[in-house]
Specification:
Chain lengths: ~90, ~280
Amino acid sequence: MSLTIHLPANLQPATDGQATISLDTNPATVADLIASLVARFPDLRPLLLTSDGMLLSHVNVFVDGRSHRDIDGLQTSLADAREIVFLTALAGG
Amino acid sequence: MSDLNPMPLPDLTDEERATYEWQMWVPGFGELGQRKLKRASVLVSRIGGVGGLVAYQLAAAGVGRLVLAHAGNVKPSDLNRQLLMTHDQVGKPRIDSAVRRLRELNPRLQIRGVAENVHPGNARALVEDVDLVVDCAPLFEERFAMNDAAVQLRKPMVECAMYDMEAQITTIVPGQTPCLRCLHPEAPRTWTRQFPVFGAVSGVVACLAAVEAIKMLTGIGQPLTGRILKCDLRNMNFFSLQISRRADCPTCMVQSQESSDSPPSNCHSDSISDA
């Protein structure tokens, strides 16, 4: 199953300007997805993770419209997932 | 939805009926909805690119009273998006320019202009003065101060923000929905006071926020409670995302202790291993 990942504007400088990324094979979990994204785009690391590898608290990962925090956290399975949306905190007013 | 304001509904004048005739045709709104707007008071925190248009739309819709908070003087760089500011007002207080423009649009509108930005020292008094808050501040410190006061006082708050060509909006109902700190417990270290913005983008989220405020004040439609709308205007992708309260949210915990409610349990570890 292919997976489409939507990234917010403030992460796109770290992904060569890509707003969406498609994967032919789903990572097993949200943690695996983030690890693979960071491996592919190293500049994402400080935008997603703390220095000790924790997901930054203002980053939310939505799996088919539901927050990973409301499912199984970073162990949320992506086996049947079709769409991932990263949501980061904004304050532009 | 219960009324946010316990005061009796005011009658409309003939002039008001003529002004709001077309919106009173909206099914479910009618003259009763217009009277609810006339009775209502709304705080808009900062009246820049987002908040200025929120205030303008609420003034046009006939909200009875606005409390506006924004410090500083008009700068040339405000004028691409801050539609309550005008070229002839550069160097003069923003709040004065905003009040003048809003009174030109709606001379019946009651306005309390506060030439300060929101901070922990004034947030509670500002929130206490109104039925509903619209948070449009450009700094997380201000947003968190507003959020904490709104939750403590159980006042609903429309939370709207933008960056670049993206916008986000949700409606917070204290005790029922996630608050801002549930969604984002901490401010991003990388957030800066200045950010890329088109006025048309800040205007989109502002109009959405004004619609949310009208819905909350009059009870029409389904507000964005328990979900956040993320708008990618560069690619025209829109996402409605479910959000929940955090069991460890310090703001909701205090509010829950005061009201003897219990927040839901949904806390997970967020540690990542390298691939």
